[in-house]
Amino acid sequence: MIVLAIDTATADLVTGLVNTDTGESTDNILPGSRGHNENLVPAIQGLLAAADLTFADLDAVVVGVGPGPFTSLRIGMATAAAIAQARGIPVHGVTTHDAIAARISAERVLVATDARRKEIYWATYSGGRRTAGPDVVKPADLTLPHEVDVVSVPAHIDLDVAGERVDLTPRATELVAAADLSVDPAPLTPLYLRRPDAKVPEPAPKSPAIPDVDLT
Which stretches does the entry tag as region Disordered (predicted)? Predict the structure, then answer.
């Protein structure tokens, strides 16, 4: 089975391919991408071309559902859903932080990503299982359910938590491993964890120059 993996929940644009029969995987990652919308489809096309494959060779799609910023998640999930629908193949959503944590061999792990607004998205893990989160909080207000051995957090975020520091992004192998490809996927549900930055404007008050008209 050839599975396309996508994650746009962090600043890194992540695409990859996994052959579940052979265990082979290939990643195409654009670090610190500020143009997920413009770069995602070309990144997927380049990934397929490098593997001498086309969209017709795909058997499933796995996409990170966050937590992450509203716009970034929408881009990745909408693209994954569109590819799956066009090909008539399943699309599975997985938690981005679970895929990051799976890259760390330590017993107790904290995964934190940039939520902007001086906040972080976070989740903790012990023995490979999530013990808290995902949630969003200011770094100073973070309360952990247990101590951790390794903290995955972007370098620019000041986090007062003891533990070895790493800065990891999800990869195709872990994204696909987080999905149960043997079952029918549930509907994609994004983990926004808070309202988007964009808000519907308040309706403007009616001008006193406009008369009331009874249309009944």
Answer: 195-216
